[in-house]
Amino acid sequence: MLRIDELTTEECAVYATLKPECMPQHVAIIMDGNGRWAGHRSLKRFLGHQQGANSVQLVTETASRIGLPWLTLYAFSLENNLKRPRAEVNFLMRLLKTYLESNLQRMMDNNVRMKYIGRTHELPAEVQEKMRWAEESTAKNTGTTLTLALNYSGRSEIADAFRSLAAELKHKRQSVEQVTEEDIHRHLYTAHMPDPDLLIRTSGEMRLSNYLLWQVAYTEIFVTERLWPDFRGIHLLEAIADFQRRERRYGGLSEVCGEVEENPKRIKIAAS
Ligand code: FPP
Which of 5, 54, 80, 151 is catalytic? Predict the structure, then answer.
């Protein structure tokens, strides 16, 4: 349900320029730049993450007001878990727990349903418990589904999908020759959702960083220099406005690319 009256005046002005029939159904975000945001202010990195958690809530609320069905945020990668100092990983885990505790009521008020993707069973037990609590408490909400990618890696998701598909084939005594793209999709963590239409990355890096590798095959990518702790709902709306100016061809032809020449004899090859 749309709650446009709850947008700020600035958000309303951008929203008014959008075409309602071309709204993305699924926006995925690589939230980058927390450390740099803190560094620019001579603050400790953890304060950047804390501000980043604030952006998560504000952006989610704008998404719910404009009726975005799916919002998927890269909150903690498997590589973050393996490669960051233990103190930072422990801080991120505590932050996630407090974030879920202190924002559950706001999720309810905004009709947001919470879900997770990733190897979440490897996270500390008390974090998993809080995650389950937030998921179950919001399960009946019908607005935006906010999916947090936690201990997530696109390649391990594909490996997990292959393992589970192989087990299914064995169980059903089916041959590998019969495997389709749809079968692989059914075994991904994201089987229940559409592929992202738009992928936003903050802080200017031009990388996918192992995020939703299978799912972003035809996703439009929007990169902004803005650091995640400075990212707000209005920037989500600006990214959607940019998305609506794109032409998605899915490997087909543009409507303005001219006539297709079907008679090979009439095609002149300059080099001949
Ligand atoms: C990148 O910043 C961001 C992360 C490692 C994780 C994202 C975490 C949050 C937004 C906060 C917690 C989220 C929730 C849902 C409570 P970086 O540290 O890599 O930044 P840098 O590249 O500038 O160092």
Answer: 80
Are the C-beta atoms of 127 and 96 separated by less than 8 Å?
yes
The count of residues in the chain is 272
The answer to whether residue 205 sits within a structural domain is yes
pLDDT, tens only, 242-261: 999 998 888 888 765 556 55
202 C-alpha to ligand 1 centroid (Å): 11
Q: Ligand 1 centre from 152 Cα, in Å?
A: 13
Q: Is 64 in the pocket of ligand 1 (CB under 6 A)?
A: no
User: Atom 16 of ligand 1 has which residue's CA nearest to it?
Assistant: 96
Q: What is the pLDDT of residues 201-254, one digit of tens each?
A: 999 999 999 999 999 999 999 999 999 999 999 999 999 999 999 988 888 887
| Residue in 222, 133, 152, 221 with CA at minimum distance from that of residue 190 | 152
pLDDT, residue 268, reads: 53
> How many Cβ atoms from other residues are within 10 Å of residue 212's Cβ?
25
CATH number at residue 114: 3.40.1180.10
**Residue 32 designated active-site:** yes
Domain that holds residue 76: 22-153+195-243
Using CA positions, which residue lies closest to atom 5 of ligand 1?
76
What's the CA-to-centroid distance between 73 and ligand 1, angstroms? 10
Q: Which pLDDT tens digit goes with each residue over 151-195?
A: 999 999 999 999 999 999 999 999 999 999 999 999 999 999 999
User: Do the domain assignments include residue 174?
Assistant: no
Burial class (CB in 10 A: 0-12, 13-18, 19+), 172: exposed
Ligand 1 within 6 A of CB of 52 = yes
- Predicted TM-score (pTM) above 0.70: yes
